[in-house]
């Protein structure tokens, strides 16, 4: 995890106000690799996830007003396979789940499922066809709604030369997005030739722009070494163009995957994540912010109030933004020489929310500055579920710790670390 010395050296950038949300109601079990989505700024919907001892297809709802959890019994749940590392989005009153995998068997999913959030009835839409008709099976990708389309971005085991697809939510047909990478000099390169898909990245949308950070790729040279990214990319939905954010020199987040992201007013926030090695996993508890409107943009560490109850180092946690607040849930947590799984929910206010009164906004800020006591236990396990994801699918993690940086003159523009 990030050293205290580094935090002090970089100095305070802004005054953070993380808060632990005390558990109320039927809280989800300790797990990682689930999905968390914002439903109308009224509730958060958690689906799936698991650990090396448990994998789920259950649905839990967190009420943003009462801050209480409840498990929702769903109809037709037998058609929904338990899964991790899937994607979930909300369109109108439907939760749309795509892809993922079974942790205990090397089974990859390509099904599209729909949960009616008014009747709580599951229905199977279809199984995504393989290229050229669709993206096929996928895991460790991200999905985002823009207009009436669900965009599916990158991911692992993509048996396709197209890294971005969209599902038309009016007729459920798949369409490839022939996007390009716009270099800093202004020239464009076919995106498929410019960069490999980054699995386990974090991403968020603001307006017509998708922001994407981190993730990993398997080296084409060896077919086994895992390359971790620390680059931040922007994708414009209207032009289908990608661009790497040209960040000023200086400290920046360590290459990683399985972290979380929030974007507000052009400011990109990154928390947590990890990078696997052959004998250990480096977990991160650092919290970074970058203002994409600055000239040039610069990564800065977000420091904490002394009394702030910030989340510990973790990865594979689910995340969502609701009422101008970043929520992170669960994840894999290092404890001594072991890993445990969390069932804790944390929040970080990104600004005032129009869904809350002035008094409620003030209470949220004050509550975040008060010390809290977390008495809920973590689930101890012998090894990491996310690392097991790589083992189960046959990925070999290199033990090398040398830096692997691609030339800035090449069209890839992706800063990677070989671990």
UniProtKB/TrEMBL annotation:
Coiled coil: none
Signal sequence range: none
SUPFAM superfamilies named among the record's database cross-references: Galactose oxidase, central domain
Cellular component terms per the entry's GO annotation: cytoplasm
GO molecular function: chromatin binding
Pfam families membership: Kelch_KLHDC2_KLHL20_DRC7
PANTHER family, alphabetized: ATTRACTIN (PTHR46461:SF2), KELCH DOMAIN-CONTAINING PROTEIN 3 (PTHR46461)
This protein's name: Kelch domain-containing protein 3
Organism: Strigomonas culicis
Species classification: Eukaryota, Discoba, Euglenozoa, Kinetoplastea, Metakinetoplastina
